[in-house]
Specification:
It is built from 10 helices and 20 strands. It has 424 residues and is α+β, with helices and mostly antiparallel strands. The strands form 5 sheets. Strands 12, 15, 16, 17, 18, 19 and 20 form a 7-stranded mixed sheet that branches.
Length: 424
């Protein structure tokens, strides 16, 4: 008997998913809950398990194609087994004003199929009630525990291991990856070329960057920052930070200065609600940190940056970076930023014009610190100099706003004493 598996409603506001890669092909026999396809949405990458045991008879959407919620993703020829009797039937919900999706007639829909979200939010962790109770008893935040159970389920052993060893030695959850097919072609003159489908994370990045460039009216302003005093402060603080297990770099200081500057220039900590045509000024300061991950550019989010200490900021930046490298970042780690910082550290170069992380209003580019000659009090001296660049959406903020904001950030970075006074 044929079973139509509809594209499930993976998350709030999700209307479609891109097929990153199939783990099966037509004619393959699958078991109940066997992972069959990896799907990427705007919010997460998920792995869908088979809701039935049987044979894959038809795959309706190929790798790289877009499948709307409620459309038949794959057809399975069911097997008459005990597994079939236990398996729930998926009834996709109507999505955003569209007609209700058809429902497979094989029985009433008692529960939705389990969707395994490899970057799920903390409130959607797969775990039994007993495991959750144990986590509460041990004071462990279950959303931070790397799972080792089937389909990314957190087990009691995972919780105990995390409580004993902490996040650095726990077994990391890995995001499934699919090999991107590469074809070889030749030009008319016989030169060899590789053709790689634009899909998955790279396509999401491309779509996001294109939308930002074609929507926001970018302008960029650059300022030179004398980091000499902050270099000395950081050098003195490194030993104290190491005692607390913190590897201290300059980014926490920069983020702290930016959060302070945003309070004076709230039009830069905002977004445009295009539906209502309202400028939304955020009264919270969630700073995005753009970094290169194993699958492309990723923006992690340091929440409530204005309320954190320098050491706490450093710990959170390190945690987020590790989560990106291990593919364990949750949806909460990757969404909700109000302003973004783009930094390549020592590879930061002299100058860049970063693209705004839409729908935010501005983004700051952090460039490398170098010893250079500078004139101070009529004398040529060696100072630690760094450029900061800010790209601003001219629709919502003026050049004056961007320049004055960066001047305030400059003041705080060049005189760390002032920065710490602002923090009190």
């Amino acid at each position: 008997m044929s079973f139509d598996f509809y594209m499930p409603d993976i998350g709030e506001g999700v209307v479609e998913g891109e097929i990153v890669g199939w783990k099966v092909k037509e004619g393959d026999r699958v078991t109940l809950d066997q992972p069959i396809v990896e799907v990427m949405t705007d919010k997460a990458t998920v792995e869908l398990p088979s809701p039935r045991a049987g044979v894959i008879t038809k795959i309706n959407y190929k790798d790289g194609s877009i499948c709307p919620v409620g459309k038949v993703l794959v057809v399975i020829d069911e097997e008459e087994t005990a597994e079939k009797k236990q398996a729930p039937v998926h009834r996709p919900a109507a999505s955003h004003g569209s007609a209700s999706a058809p429902v497979h007639a094989a029985g009433a829909a008692k529960a939705q199929i389990q969707v395994v979200d490899v970057s799920e939010g903390r409130d959607r962790v797969l775990a039994t009630p007993a495991t959750r109770r144990l986590a509460r008893q041990l004071g462990v935040e279950i959303g931070r525990v790397p799972p080792t159970g089937k389909h990314g389920r957190v087990t009691t052993d995972d919780v105990k291991r995390y409580q004993t060893n902490g996040p650095t030695t726990a077994i990391a959850r890995t995001q499934p990856t699919m090999a991107t097919p590469v074809s070889i072609s030749r030009t008319a003159l016989g030169y060899e070329e590789e053709r790689i489908p634009l899909r998955g994370m790279r396509k999401k990045i491309a779509d996001s960057m294109s939308r930002s460039v074609h929507t926001a009216a970018h302008f960029t302003y650059v300022e030179e920052i004398d980091m000499t005093e902050l270099v000395l402060v950081r050098d003195r603080a490194k030993a104290r930070a190491a005692e607390r297990g913190v590897k201290l770099n300059y980014l926490p200081f920069i983020i702290k200065a930016i959060a302070s500057g945003l309070k004076k220039w709230p039009q830069l900590n905002a977004s445009l609600d295009e539906t209502t045509q309202e400028i939304v000024r955020k009264k919270y300061y969630h700073i995005g940190v753009a970094a290169q991950g194993p699958h492309g550019l990723v923006v992690t989010v340091v929440r409530d940056a204005d309320l954190r200490s320098i050491f706490d900021l450093s710990r959170e930046i390190d945690r987020l970076g590790e989560a990106v490298r291990n593919n364990t970042a949750t949806r909460d780690d990757l969404t909700g930023s109000t302003f973004t910082v783009s930094s390549l550290g020592k590879l930061g170069g002299v100058l860049a014009t970063p693209i705004i992380n839409f729908p935010e209003v501005a983004i700051v580019g952090v460039h490398k610190i170098e010893e250079k000659p500078a004139v101070r009090n009529g004398q040529i001296v060696i100072r630690h100099l760094m450029n900061l660049s800010i790209s601003v959406d001219h629709r919502l903020a003026d050049g004056w706003d961007g320049a004055m904001f960066l001047q305030d950030v400059k003041t705080l970075l060049e005189d760390p004493t002032t920065m710490f006074m602002e923090m009190i």
